[in-house]
Amino acid sequence: MADKKVTDLTALASASGDDLLLVVNDPTGTPASRKITVNQFFGAVAANTVHTGTLSCSANTTFSGNKVTVSANTTFSGNLRLSSDTPSSNVASAEGYGTGSIWFDADYIYVATASGTIKRAALSVF
Q: I need a labelling partner for 61 at 20 to 30 A (CA). Which of 5, 6, 75, 113 fits?
């Protein structure tokens, strides 16, 4: 296999964590071919990574942390929990929420309609 080009190798339909990837270490200095597993490669991805383009999630997807920001042409369906914080003022930007943010507490549902405005509606049992 040492005499094959990477482009001549058979394509893999899907990868598992123990599969190996080819890495060229220090390509602008002294290049050296190295290996890394898929798990090692993705384990090095920063926790706060920005993805652009299309992101599809299905069946029991969990986003964790204290803030998730979603914008532009977004559709949610099913059970959705965005936040459960009680704001201390009605100024969205001061509370750390952008326009369009939706959240709730035990008594109200809140919507940031502009950077300076939070509107709320009382929740009641029906």
A: 113
CA 65 → CA 25, 48, 58, distances in Å? 33, 10, 19
Q: Are 94 and 75 in contact (CB under 8 A)?
A: no
For residue 121 the two structure tokens come to: 């509606």
First and final C-alpha spacing in the chain? 69
Write the DSSP symbol of residue 33.
E
Contact between 99 and 114 (Cβ < 8 Å) = yes
Rounded to two decimals, what is the model's pTM?
A: 0.39
pLDDT in tens, 25-61: 998 999 998 999 988 888 877 666 666 667 776 666 6
Domain ranges of the chain: 6-43
Sign of the C-alpha dihedral computed for residues 85, 77, 93 and 64 taken in this order:
positive
